[in-house]
């Protein structure tokens, strides 16, 4: 009896030591690990990262900002065949086991032992979901235990359909796409419900990982896709005949898309900056915002084509050349930021390119993601000795190192703004010649000398006094503005062509952009009043109240200047530029809405007079040649050109009651664009194409004449009335009681303006 009792004690001891203690130890370890895992409440509250979607003015998707590109689909939005394909290859027994498939694990272990390496995993769909939601992909026992525990928690909190939908929304399917919704768009440019069986099979194949990407490993992707099709046949999802036909098909996917928006990169970047300022980076990339912008894709496309054409034409006329350091005598005094230099590739490294710029200087081009926007690897594109152009940024003269950026061509830069004057909507935006070369947005961030485009802004002040009219006569003759308190003590005003035309009306002066008349008018109204009107019309930058303001020394952004011309187009109501109409959260609730803000700053009468005065440059003045072949500009158009000294800044503002277009061309440093260049020539061909297209697609009406305005036919040179019943002269508009009363005795034919003088 004593022997038997002792033996029973030993048996229990051995059983406890062999089974109970390890089980308790395992349960304890699992319990400790489980304590660090998310609670049931956290699992219910889990929301995958969803990026911010940017929409155009037609509410069509334009771009996405995302950390993980994803389209969230509800369970009933995922086609049964998509679910079946993933289950066939990843977890065929999904509906028949709990969180863990014991038989699947044993089968995987036996296969791995037989093969002598890790060839098969035993993770269920629920385990994969747990891993993708909260865990890493490291292959450790600790992670595997956590994965199993979390999988049981998920199974306890959700039904099988919910789990499968969560899995199909979260899983990474390569090419930056998370979930089947985003992958369908990325690979096939279609919604998931329109996918074919082979396309569905490819998405299921990609669950295995990026090693099966059709872009990087097409043969491997084809083999895996065909395996999925085989599994679908085995599971009865497709017939044998369908299987045989599908595996014979090649893989066809959409070309890889650039991470840049090709249509409107500067507009998108401006919107991104606005969102980051208001909401921060994290919300933009993970918060699921929907941002409805003001971008008109049709106008933006027209602008892109017009700007490219204008840049091509101006380069062809002038054959711009890059500078070479060997031609500089004093680099520290003669070298300015943004100059285009010529160099030769020395070496292409992993993060930089080195360029031999001459005089012992090495240029450093960063090729990190922030600075290198091109869609190719520089190591495969450049080789030592290749000649390239670079934009100079900074220099360390002691160590003979310069920071530079690659320029594809030594073109000048450009900026373009399209606006709806009735709402302030920014409908098109271009901030440079090529976003990949330079992300600096010249349309919104630069301050550029505006030249003669300033003239209508202070002519408005003169018209507003009712002391001056379209028919007021000034004499275009040599003029000196005394400045007794300055050095030099006087300013000799000169015209662009250094010629003088004698007496002319203000209407002709603005038509021909005569500097002398502008200076004389500025002296009459005073620079302080001129500055007041610039700000009233929409300029926010500080402006110096000096005589030279009359010929446009002020520096403003293209967006500001375009806004001021919106005030004219909108009959005296100033608008606030709007890029974003509204923002909603992921559920569609409105977070923010930007309502057009209109402020009356001019009477409709003054605005109407100025609009008709600014038709003159297109009808008889500086850009009247655009009305002729080969350009053939049509329809109602008003606006103003601007050409600064040495043709370093060229502007064209054009508008109708429906739209305002503003454009600038110049270098990023003060340099002539060509001594024979002028604004109308530089912008004209592209602008004509835009305006004619818009006028064909939109019924462009003229401005309606407001009460209190009278129209009189006037000689544009003498300012005198044309006798009743006589032809000649032009129609001018006046506040009632300010129209000219004296009649001319010499009847001019038409406007009597010699366009060839221009």
Brief overview:
It contains 24 helices and 27 strands. It is α+β, with helices and mostly antiparallel strands.
Question: Tags for this entry?
Answer:
disordered C terminus; Beta-lactamase; five-stranded mixed beta sheet; five-stranded mixed barrel; elongated; Penicillin binding protein transpeptidase fold; alpha+beta; 758 residues
What does this structure look like?
By secondary structure, the chain is of the alpha+beta class. It is built from 24 helices and 27 strands. The strands form 9 sheets. It has a 5-stranded mixed β-sheet with strand order 2-1-5-20-21. A hairpin with a 5-residue loop joins β20 and β21. The protein is elongated, with a radius of gyration of 36 Å. The C terminus is likely disordered.
Estimate the mean pLDDT confidence. Answer: 88
Second-tier CATH architecture of the domain at 48-66 and 260-320 and 414-431 and 579-699: 3-Layer(aba) Sandwich
Regarding quaternary structure, how should these chains be classified? single chain
Number of strands: 27
CATH topology group of the domain at 48-66 and 260-320 and 414-431 and 579-699: Beta-lactamase
Low-confidence stretches: 116-120, 752-758
Beta-strand percent range: 15-25%
Main beta-sheet strand count, sense and barrel state? 5 strands, mixed
CATH top-level class of the domain at 48-66 and 260-320 and 414-431 and 579-699: Alpha Beta
Number of helices: 24
Global morphology: elongated
Q: Structural class of the secondary elements?
A: alpha+beta
Radius of gyration: 36 Å
Percent in helix = 25-40%
Q: Gap between N and C termini, in Å?
A: 129 Å
Strand order of the largest sheet: 2-1-5-20-21
CATH superfamily of the domain at 48-66 and 260-320 and 414-431 and 579-699: DD-peptidase/beta-lactamase superfamily
């Amino acid at each position: 009896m004593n022997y038997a009792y002792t033996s029973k004690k030993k048996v229990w001891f051995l059983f406890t030591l062999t089974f109970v203690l390890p089980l308790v130890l395992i349960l304890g370890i699992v319990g400790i690990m489980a304590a660090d895992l998310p609670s049931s409440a956290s699992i219910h509250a889990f929301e995958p990262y969803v990026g911010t979607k940017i929409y155009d003015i037609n509410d069509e998707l334009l771009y996405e900002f995302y950390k993980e590109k994803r389209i969230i689909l509800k369970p009933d939005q995922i086609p049964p065949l998509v679910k079946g394909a993933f289950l066939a290859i990843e977890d065929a027994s999904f509906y028949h086991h709990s969180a863990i498939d014991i038989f699947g694990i044993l089968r995987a272990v036996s296969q791995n032992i037989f093969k002598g390496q890790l060839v098969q995993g035993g993770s269920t769909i629920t385990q994969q979901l747990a891993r993708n939601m909260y865990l890493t992909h490291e292959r450790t026992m600790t992670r595997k235990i956590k994965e199993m525990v979390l999988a049981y928690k998920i199974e306890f909190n959700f039904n099988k359909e919910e789990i499968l939908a969560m899995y199909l929304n979260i899983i990474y399917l390569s090419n930056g796409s998370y979930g089947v919704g985003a992958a369908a768009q990325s690979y096939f440019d279609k919604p998931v419900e329109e996918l074919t069986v082979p396309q569905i099979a490819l998405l299921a194949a990609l669950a295995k990982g990026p090693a099966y990407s059709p872009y990087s490993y097409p043969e491997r992707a084809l083999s895996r896709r065909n395996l999925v099709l085989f599994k679908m046949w085995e599971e009865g999802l497709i017939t044998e005949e369908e299987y045989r036909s599908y595996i014979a098909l090649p893989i066809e996917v959409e070309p890889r898309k650039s991470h840049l928006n090709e249509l409107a990169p500067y507009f998108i970047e401006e919107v991104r900056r606005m969102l980051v300022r208001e909401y921060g980076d994290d919300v933009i990339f993970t918060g699921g915002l929907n941002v409805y912008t003001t971008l008109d894709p049709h106008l933006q496309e027209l602008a892109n084509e017009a700007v490219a054409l204008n840049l091509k034409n101006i380069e062809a006329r002038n054959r711009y050349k890059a500078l070479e350091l060997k031609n500089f005598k004093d680099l520290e005094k003669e070298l300015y930021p943004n100059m285009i230099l010529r160099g030769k590739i020395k070496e292409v490294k992993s993060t930089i390119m080195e360029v031999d710029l001459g005089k012992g200087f090495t240029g450093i081009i960063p090729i990190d993601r922030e600075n290198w926007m091109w869609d190719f690897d520089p190591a495969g594109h450049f080789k030592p000795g290749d000649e390239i152009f670079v934009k100079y940024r900074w220099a360390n003269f002691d160590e003979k190192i310069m920071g530079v950026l690659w320029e594809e061509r030594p073109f000048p830069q450009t900026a373009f703004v399209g606006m709806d004057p009735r709402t302030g909507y920014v409908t098109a935006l271009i901030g440079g010649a090529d976003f990949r070369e330079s992300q600096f947005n010249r349309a919104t961030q630069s301050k550029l000398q505006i030249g003669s485009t300033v003239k209508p802004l202070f002519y408005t002040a003169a018209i507003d006094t009712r002391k001056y009219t379209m028919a007021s006569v000034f004499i275009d003759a040599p003029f000196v503005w005394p400045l007794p308190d300055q050095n030099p003590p006087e300013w000799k005003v000169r015209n662009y062509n250094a010629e003088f035309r004698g007496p002319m009306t203000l209407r002709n002066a603005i038509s021909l952009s005569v500097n002398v008349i502008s200076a004389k008018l500025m002296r009459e109204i005073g620079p302080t009043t001129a500055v007041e009107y610039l700000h009233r019309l929409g300029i926010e930058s500080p402006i110096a109240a000096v005589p030279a303001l009359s010929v446009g020394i002020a520096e403003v952004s293209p967006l500001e200047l375009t806004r001021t011309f919106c005030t004219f187009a909108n009959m005296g109501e100033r608008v606030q530029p709007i890029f974003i109409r509204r923002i909603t959260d992921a559920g569609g609730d409105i977070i923010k809405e930007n309502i057009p803000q209109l402020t009356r700053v001019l009477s409709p009468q003054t605005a109407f007079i100025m609009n008709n005065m600014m038709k003159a440059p297109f009808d008889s003045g500086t850009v009247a040649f655009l009305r002729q072949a080969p350009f053939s500009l049509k329809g109602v158009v008003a606006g103003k050109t601007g050409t600064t000294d040495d043709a370093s800044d060229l502007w064209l503002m054009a508008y109708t009651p429906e739209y305002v277009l503003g454009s600038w061309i110049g270098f990023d440093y003060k340099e002539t664009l060509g001594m024979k260049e002028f604004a109308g020539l530089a912008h004209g061909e592209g602008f004509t194409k835009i305006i004619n297209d818009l006028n064909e697609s939109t019924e462009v009406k003229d401005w309606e004449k407001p009460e209190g305005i009278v129209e009189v036919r006037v000689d544009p040179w003498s300012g005198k009335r044309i006798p009743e019943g006589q032809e000649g002269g032009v129609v001018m508009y006046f506040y009632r009681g300010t129209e000219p009363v004296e009649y001319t005795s010499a009847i001019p034919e038409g406007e009597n303006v010699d366009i060839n003088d221009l």
